[in-house]
Amino acid sequence: MKFSATLLATLLAGATSVAAHATFQQFWVGSSDKAGTCIRTPLSNSPVTSVGSGDIACNVSPRASQGLCDVAAGSTVSVEMHQQPGDRSCSNEAIGGNHDGPVIIYMAKVDDALTASATSARWFKVAQTGYQGNDYWATDGLNANCGKYTFTIPSCIPAGQYLLRAEVIALHVAGSVGGAQFYISCYTLNVTGGGSASPSTVSFPGVYSATDPGIKFDLYGGFTSYTIPGPAVFTCSGGNNSNTQPPQSSTRPTSTSTSSRSSSSSTRTSSANGSGQTLYGQCGGQGWTGPTTCASGTCKVSNQFYSQCLP
Ligand SMILES: *[C@@H]1O[C@H](CO)[C@@H](O)[C@H](O)[C@H]1NC(C)=O
Ligand SMILES: *[C@@H]1O[C@H](CO)[C@@H](O)[C@H](O)[C@H]1NC(C)=O
Ligand SMILES: *[C@@H]1O[C@H](CO)[C@@H](O)[C@H](O)[C@H]1NC(C)=O
Ligand SMILES: [Cu+2]
């Protein structure tokens, strides 16, 4: 059988991406490691590619969740991604290769998180990080932080059970429609405390279109900015929220890049400076050579490999 050059290129692109696929697998409440106790674990690390499919909500027929993680409204949590099932080694990239893209977090209030239908759930966005300039994406932040992405559960949402949807959109072949790769896992939470806010919501499928500017996106086209798809991040104040700020990492380049990609950024609001690591950045762990003090927050040990500046 004779392959066309285009088909061959497609096959090669597929072959290289297989090894780099990844799955959100673990959960942290503050510095407490909940591992995989409250997640509908996807059956494989392959991405969803159809935004119109029910799989876009919580992945393809994931395993049933074993339980709920109790989380106080207003507290800090982390989702954790790795390429292979159960491999939490911090020396392997969380999501490898050139799987550049945003990290986006949604929540949906449900009656029973263990059984709730993901496609019937009504979702609001609670955190997101996209392109931060200098060729640095949210996925680079995952790789610099042992797969972890840390954010705050809104303090004003009602107590009760929720699904939490964590998503990476890998953009390495997103230049054509259907190329974007969605890596999605849903966690099952019991939120305590809270308030009486009623965020406006969206549905999966429904909220994303295959031609949204953040979904059909040319990673190699000399872009200067990136538009994260979906609604605005819900905030209790109705205004800006620290969850829209990128988790910081000392490995993020701070000088002007010589690459063809632009270094401009409209979302970056702070950067590490001489007085220590910024909030949510890494500040220690085996093999870590970056800053060990925090300009904001306190350096807390998460595990042998990872300490982080936390509020
Ligand atoms: C959720 O947390 C509340 C407050 O701690 C507790 O009373 C309730 O039993 C929990 N619900 C479930 C289903 O675990
Ligand atoms: C959010 O922050 C940006 C940048 O600091 C500012 O321009 C914008 O007006 C703020 N929006 C709201 C709703 O406060
Ligand atoms: C630098 O660190 C100080 C705290 O020592 C902080 O107040 C300031 O905002 C930081 N600057 C930037 C750009 O992050
Ligand atoms: Cu992949």
TrEMBL record:
Signal peptide limits: 1-20
UniProt xrefs under InterPro entries: AA9, AA9_LPMO, CBD, CBD_sf
Main location: secreted
Keywords in alphabetical order: Carbohydrate metabolism, Cellulose degradation, Copper, Disulfide bond, Metal-binding, Monooxygenase, Oxidoreductase, Polysaccharide degradation, Secreted, Signal
Top EC class for this record: oxidoreductase
SMART domains, sorted: fCBD (SM00236)
Location within or outside the cell: Secreted
GO terms under biological process: cellulose catabolic process
Enzymatic reactions: [(1->4)-beta-D-glucosyl]n+m + reduced acceptor + O2 = 4-dehydro-beta-D-glucosyl-[(1->4)-beta-D-glucosyl]n-1 + [(1->4)-beta-D-glucosyl]m + acceptor + H2O
GO CC term (a single one): extracellular region
GO molecular function: cellulase activity; cellulose binding; metal ion binding; monooxygenase activity
SUPFAM superfamilies named among the record's database cross-references: Cellulose-binding domain
EC number of the protein: 1.14.99.56
Domain CBM1 per the UniProt entry, residue ranges: 275-310
Family classification: Belongs to the polysaccharide monooxygenase AA9 family.
Comment text on domains: Has a modular structure: an endo-beta-1,4-glucanase catalytic module at the N-terminus, a linker rich in serines and threonines, and a C-terminal carbohydrate-binding module (CBM).
Function: Lytic polysaccharide monooxygenase (LMPO) that depolymerizes crystalline and amorphous polysaccharides via the oxidation of scissile alpha- or beta-(1-4)-glycosidic bonds, yielding C1 and/or C4 oxidation products. Catalysis by LPMOs requires the reduction of the active-site copper from Cu(II) to Cu(I) by a reducing agent and H(2)O(2) or O(2) as a cosubstrate.
The protein, known as: AA9 family lytic polysaccharide monooxygenase
Native species: Serendipita indica (strain DSM 11827) (Root endophyte fungus)
